[in-house]
């Protein structure tokens, strides 16, 4: 299985801050990397697909970059509704695997 | 807009079989081209992909569950289903169904259903 490792595991930031979350794959997954946001008690919501493509309806303050094994999710100008947990996921090969999550707290 | 809704028992006894159904609306499974997935999330934990079914009935499963899991599709009812046999308390989780979008990303999710394994 491809292992996905996110960092940090948690962070606290203020409204208006720029936040960066990284995700590393145990082998190359090309651009088959996606980012999700999950709020407590809710299903995950797709933010970014294929490493850098913004899903329809997702605010432009979210962006993604990377290819191969190293990827980054950036949130510019953090908003209160951005709290929750962020997950990366690879779909290069089955079994699809997720990172362990990054819990974002708004200060 | 496609919508997915999980249904099934919220409580299953150990050693029994967990059965869930995902009903799809706003789109037809038989139109093809998409993978219909099951994912689970243990309480307070991360996400685990269980497997998917294609509209043809072709499947792929997580090897960690492969001996116990089956996913099937009923295009006449626009539903797909999950069966997990010989459950233990370790199978207690919220179970989600989801459909892929571009690049096999999971762009449409059900709301999730909590299944508790307990005697």
Q: Give the total of beta strands of chain B.
A: 11
Helix content of chain A: under 10%
What fraction of residues of chain A sit in β-strands?
Answer: over 45%
Mean pLDDT of chain B: 96
Q: How far is the N terminus from the C terminus of chain B? A: 39 Å
Assign an overall shape of chain A: globular
- Largest contact between protein chains? A-B, 25 and 24 residues
Order of helices and strands of chain A: EEEEEEEEEEE
Sequence stretches where pLDDT stays below 50 over 5 or more residues of chain B: none
What would your notes on this structure say?
The complex is a heterodimer of chains A (107) and B (119). Chain A is mostly beta strands. Chain A contains no helices and 11 strands. In chain A, the strands form 2 sheets. In chain A, strands 2, 4, 5, 6, 9, 10 and 11 form a 7-stranded mixed beta sheet that branches. In chain A, strands 1-3-8-7 form a 4-stranded antiparallel beta sheet, with no helix packed on it. Chain A is globular, with a radius of gyration of 13 Å. In chain B, strands 2, 4, 5, 6, 9, 10 and 11 form a 7-stranded mixed beta sheet that branches. In chain B, strands 1-3-8-7 form a 4-stranded antiparallel beta sheet, with no helix packed on it. The model of chain B has no long low-confidence stretch (mean pLDDT 96). The interface between A and B is medium-sized, with 25 and 24 residues.
Descriptive keywords:
heterodimer, A: 107 residues, mainly beta, 7-stranded mixed β-sheet, B: 119 residues
In short:
The complex is a heterodimer of chains A (about 110) and B (about 120). Chain A is mostly beta strands.
């Amino acid at each position: 299985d491809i292992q996905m490792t996110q960092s940090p595991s948690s962070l606290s930031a203020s409204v208006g801050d720029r936040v960066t979350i990284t995700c590393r794959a145990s082998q190359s997954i090309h651009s088959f990397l996606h980012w999700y946001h999950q709020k407590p008690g809710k299903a995950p919501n797709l933010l970014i697909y294929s490493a850098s493509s913004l899903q329809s309806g997702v605010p432009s303050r979210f962006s993604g970059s990377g290819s191969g094994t190293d990827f980054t999710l950036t949130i510019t100008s953090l908003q209160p509704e951005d709290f929750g947990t962020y997950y990366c996921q690879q779909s290069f090969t089955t079994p699809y695997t997720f990172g362990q999550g990054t819990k974002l707290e708004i200060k | 807009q496609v919508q997915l809704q999980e249904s099934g028992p919220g409580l299953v006894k150990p050693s029994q079989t967990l059965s869930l159904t995902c009903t799809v609306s706003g789109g037809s499974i038989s139109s093809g081209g998409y993978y219909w997935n099951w994912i689970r999330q243990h309480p307070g934990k991360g996400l685990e992909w269980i497997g998917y079914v294609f509209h043809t009935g072709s499947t792929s499963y997580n090897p960690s569950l492969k001996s116990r899991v089956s996913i099937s599709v009923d295009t006449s009812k626009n539903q797909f289903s999950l069966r997990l046999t010989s459950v233990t308390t370790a199978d207690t989780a919220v179970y989600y169904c989801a459909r892929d979008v571009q690049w096999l990303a999971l762009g449409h999710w059900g709301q999730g259903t909590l299944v508790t394994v307990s005697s």
